[in-house]
Amino acid sequence: MPFKIENINNLSIEDTLKLLNTSKDGLSSKEAKKRLKEYGYNEIPEYKEPLWHRIFRRFWGPIPWMIEIAALLSALVGRWEDFIIIMIMLFVNAFLDFYQEHKALNALEVLKKKLARKSIVLRDGEFKEIEAKELVPGDIIKIKIGDIIPADVKLIEGDFISVDQSALTGESLPVTKKKGDIAYSNSIVKQGEMIALVVATGLNTYFGKTVKLVAKAEQNQRSHFQQMVIRVGDFLIIITIVMVAIIIFYGIKRDENLPELLEFSLVLTVAAIPVALPTVLTVVMAIGALNLAKKQAIVSRLAAIEEMAGMDILCSDKTGTLTQNKMTVGKPFVIKNHSHDELFKYAVFASKKENNDPIEKPIFEYVEKNNINIPSFKLIKFIPFDPVRKRTEAIIQIDNKQIIATKGAPQVIIELSNLTDEEKKLAYKKVEEFAENGFRTLGVAYKFDVNEKFEFVGLIPLYDPPREDSKEAIKEAKEKGVEVKMVTGDNVAVARYIAKILGIGDKIYSIRELKNETHDEYIILAEVISKALLKQFNLSEEEIKQKVNAIVNEVKKEVGEKLIKGSVKRHESEIIKIIEEANGFAEVFPEDKYFIVDELQKADHIVGMTGDGVNDAPALRKADTGIAVSGATDAARAAADIILLAPGLRVIIDAIKEARITFERMKSYTIYRIAETIRVILFMTLAIVIFNFYPITALMIILLALLNDIPILAIAYDNTKIEEKPVRWDMHEMLVLSSWLGVAGVLSSFTIFYIIMVYIHAHPDNPFFPALPNWVDIKNYSSFLAFVQSAFFTKLVMAGHWTIFNTRTADWFFKKPYPSKILLFASISTAFIGLIIGVYGFRLITPIGWKWGLFLLGYTIVWFIFNDFVKRLVVNYYRKVKGVNVI
């Protein structure tokens, strides 16, 4: 059974060696081979779906079925031009879907490639280089500066190493590891060299957990957009099938020509099925993606645009997104009798610029920025920081005068200095203040003689400052109805300080407390025991308090990664409530980010997640909208839906605005499409069933479908409003409005039906309506019927194009935002083409002439205005009575 890292975190080196049945002499090649068979390779196992299967899946499912049925029906009735157009739509949708999935699959590939390639291992009593994938639990390896740690290891020999594990845990600074500590796979060694024992490999490593979480996040889960398309498609298909079935039933009952009846029914079915719906909406999103690209946001999954429009919670990592990812000097504390410049002078003496240490770098930058004069000096000796001494020390020489300067952990520097009790008390108070605000503090001191005590100069607080645009961006996000929750691997104090500055809120919790995985038991025990022991010595209460705090801080550091699980478990509903109310979480690991997103989604939130490291990949994949920030790792980019090219939250706010614009375009088209289908199919069915009258022919249905769908692509370029709150698909609301508009369209069709078929047929020479063209014989039913059908075709084409101007905005059609020039041109020109076809016929239909053409143009415009009244009544009713926005 493979060993998991949590099983051996708390074991001593000797117990760990015993558990793994190994020694400091390493394994033999024979034993290593045996274990390789037992544990498997130190790599990420991968399942590759066959290419044919990935392609086949593009043509299987509710949306492809809808298009394929339409294509089949077109072929059955011999409408090959429709068949070709529909098949093109099918393949375009399949290609776009395949391409998006291909990009998503790269996440696992990138994570796999991140594993180290080679490792120096102790086998058969000697160190040799092997492929890292051949490492097994129990191996003894050597790790040194510059190495990528190839597996989870326990450090067993050497002084210390400093490792950068920011891509795994999100910690912004390198972490010092010493003998007995665990170092994680894929961390980078920044300083030092040690011998280590391999304790976990492959998927059992900390890194492996991240990979498993990425795989766990459903790759093919349907987005809200896909669900909406399926539901709209199902609704329209069911209506169409029911209506067509009624037409066929009554046709057979009336002994109509069966082949002609079936052909007409099939053509009507093809026209009613919204085959263009997925394509039009995809084009709308693609245009939105292009607009986002101009704003430094690259979209890798189109449906993520729609998800972002409805996003109501944004989980943002701290480092690099909310903050500058650059350690900066805060307001320093200087002890009396010393100056600000002295503090930084001695700090520079105790530093080494060429080390490029992230703790020392801000000190040099501060000195340069503030023009602090540093005298020329000769470095005699430099002792780097180590986890035992907890400080650096330098012996320098200035004008034949020797100075010993030191900097490091403030508690250590204070205790080494010649401070009075009052000065010590003040210094410790400042250390506590800095710690409460999340600062990392350095103490600075110096002396002239080795045998003297150090002269304490002061404290230098360091922190990662917020980005200048973060506070304003968070404020705007709240105004847009998006709550920003900080999710960081840093400690609670740091998170609370940044959250306070940025106005995020003060409810920042440790994720360990939420999940009942806290080291409070250790802390309380350490506090009780240390107090009891220290009271045996002749110490003041203040000294006892200071020493207890120092011991407690040390215990916190030691057991920070060695969490024990609490016995009381919260109910999931309570956990969800806490997460919803929280403003952020600290001390977060990869599985915690995934957990937070998952719990919020269970509460019906649409969740966005920002990230930049390997540790963020699972949550980025799980989130409704995964956002890889500027400078993100390849793994994070591959897992994300949107990749930012510019730093900070400002880009995300711009992306939210663009996403909501795109959503409004999609919604207006969807309402239009439903309304048009109801208008045509309901009118056709009622006319045929009640009056035994076929309003238009099969050819006219095809022409109507083509003229209605082709220009509607211009909706992708329409001007629209930006909603102030997150927007979502609501089928009930959309169906209500589209149904009312559809019924209004049916009413207008039956009104013109009465005018022509009843009134004009009885009063051909009336003064109210245009005279019939001279080529129409009112006494000849076939001639008159052909004219009536042409009139209905012309009316339906023009009325359909005006409907989009009803659905594009909730306000009156003549109010801002005005339609774009492209939409106006496309709609009016195509409506005009329909009018010209109706007027002249072109041997396709019976011409109606200009008098009737202009009359129908005016008639449809009047009904367009009436439809806008209907829309406003429905919208106002839902806003006032139901409290919701329909459009």
Indicate the percent of residues in helices.
40-55%
Domains (count): 5
The oligomeric status of these chains comes to single chain
Structural class of the helix and strand makeup? Answer: alpha+beta
Number of DSSP strand runs = 23
Measured on Cα atoms, how large is the radius of gyration? 36 Å
CATH superfamily of the largest domain, please?
Answer: Calcium-transporting ATPase, transmembrane domain
- Per CATH, the architecture of the largest domain is Up-down Bundle
Shape: elongated
What is the CATH first-level class name of the largest domain? Mainly Alpha
Q: What is the mean predicted local confidence, pLDDT?
A: 84
Strand content: 5-15%
Q: Spans of 5+ residues with little confidence (pLDDT < 50)?
A: 561-568
Walk me through the structure.
The protein has 887 residues and is α+β, with helices and mostly antiparallel strands. It has 5 domains: 5-46 and 118-216, Calcium-transporting ATPase, cytoplasmic transduction domain A (Distorted Sandwich); 51-113; 274-293 and 659-882, Calcium-transporting ATPase, transmembrane domain, CATH 1.20.1110; 307-325 and 466-519 and 560-645, Rossmann fold, CATH 3.40.50.1000; 329-463, 3-Layer(aba) Sandwich (Calcium-transporting ATPase, cytoplasmic domain N). It is built from 32 helices and 23 strands. Strands 1, 2, 3, 4, 5, 6, 7 and 8 form an 8-stranded antiparallel beta sheet that branches. Strands 9-23-22-21-10-18-20-19 form an 8-stranded mixed beta sheet, sandwiched between helices. Helix 10 (258-272) runs parallel beside helix 28 (698-709), helix 21 packs antiparallel against helix 22 (541-559) and helix 30 runs antiparallel to helix 31. The radius of gyration is 36 Å and the shape is elongated. The two termini are 58 Å apart. The model is unreliable at 561-568 (pLDDT under 50).
